[in-house]
Specification:
The structure holds 2 protein chains of 2 kinds. Helices cover 23% and strands 44% of the residues of chain A. Chain A is built from 2 helices and 7 strands; from the N terminus they run H-E-E-E-H-E-E-E-E. Chain A has helices at residues 3-18, 81-94, and strands spanning 23-25, 39-51, 61-74, 98-99, 102-104, 108-115, 118-132. In chain A, strand 6 and strand 7 (118-132) form a beta hairpin. In chain B, 49% of the residues lie in helices and 19% in strands. Chain B has 6 helices and 5 strands; from the N terminus they run H-H-E-E-H-E-H-E-E-H-H. In chain B, strand 1 and strand 2 (59-61) form a beta hairpin. Classes of the chains: A alpha+beta, B alpha+beta. The interface between A and B is medium-sized, with 24 and 18 residues.
Chain lengths: 133, 176
């Protein structure tokens, strides 16, 4: 699997499961949030590919890690439940799931608070995928 | 040499290996954190702190580097950035070398904009005059987050099971 396909499959899974819950900002796609309406932003951040087996060229198993990061934006002064509810929904889409060779670990939700006129929670899900090179 | 001496030697060897593994894990994590960090003023990198909880002796905390001045800095050039990172790494690994078998090592960063670096990135608006249109144009900019700690933790989860082999390799051959 390539980095390109990894990004595509993660975004596709989110798109299919999140459906019309809120509008979503994807990487490098024009997006303007509607004032007062919650929205989500999904990003995929990749880390190192670490060799985890003996082997030579084309026979070494590499484990690549990354983070699926979803920022949930809600309007200010509406309390925390809307944001936390959306964070729960986002976490459930990936937590412990395996798809397209990607294995997700547990999710964690971090309160980021007021950021640029929105109240934000971050949902981070570390994942890994193995590939032989 | 009798069995008693053999066992004592074995126990002491295991203890030495475990201490070495703990310090190696912390050094690898610190190196990854520093070299993955954005470097503009260098304050974020300076603010990676190492804390060691001494087993049974209360809590020892590494020196804190929390800047009080925030300003806009031009990014460091790549050569300057690398030597700055190497200098910061060298300063902090000495402290890790004092960790003992039952100590906990914590690496953390409490700089006020750490949440931007980790989770949100930065965004803002700017405008410029476009002479061809004879008017001002408004644009917004966005700089994504780095997930410095999140990615390092994910990588360490893969590296930790490999550490015994790496440390043995270091002890037996001097190469790692």
């Amino acid at each position: 699997m390539t980095f390109k396909n990894e990004q595509r499959d993660i975004e596709a899974r989110f798109k299919n499961n999140w459906a019309s819950t809120t509008s979503v900002k994807y990487d490098n796609v024009d997006f303007t949030p509607t004032p007062g309406e919650s929205w989500a932003e999904i990003q995929v951040h990749t880390g190192d590919q670490i060799p985890v087996s003996l082997g030579g060229i084309n026979a070494t198993l590499y484990r690549g890690v990354g983070i699926i990061s979803i920022n949930i934006h809600t309007a200010l002064n509406i309390g925390s439940q809307t944001g936390k509810n959306l964070a729960d929904t986002a976490a459930a889409i990936f937590r412990g799931q395996s798809f397209s060779g990607i294995t997700c670990r547990g999710a964690n939700v971090t309160r980021l608070g007021e950021t640029n006129g929105w109240f934000v929670y971050n949902v981070s899900i570390p994942y890994f995928r193995d590939e032989t090179f | 040499m009798g069995f008693k001496e053999d066992i004592e030697k074995f126990k002491s060897g295991i203890k030495k290996d475990l201490i070495q593994q703990k310090r190696t894990a912390a050094r690898i994590a610190l190196k990854k954190l520093i070299y993955r960090s954005p470097a503009r003023s260098g304050n974020y990198i300076r603010s990676h702190n190492v804390g060691i909880s001494k087993s049974g002796k209360g809590r020892g905390i590494g020196k804190r580097h929390v800047p009080v001045v925030e300003a806009w800095f031009e990014p460091m050039d790549p050569g300057e950035k690398l030597s700055f990172m190497a200098e910061q790494y060298a300063k902090k690994i000495a402290y890790i070398s004092t960790a003992q078998l039952l100590d906990s090592i914590t690496i953390y960063n409490v700089i006020p904009y750490a949440k931007n670096v980790e989770y949100t990135g930065w965004s803002g608006d700017y405008s410029f005059y476009d002479p061809s249109r004879g008017t001002s144009i408004n644009r917004s900019w966005y700089h994504p987050p780095y997930h410095v700690y999140g990615l390092t933790v994910a990588e360490m989860a893969v590296i930790m099971p490999l550490l015994p082999k790496m440390v043995s390799g270091n002890i037996n051959t001097g190469i790692m």
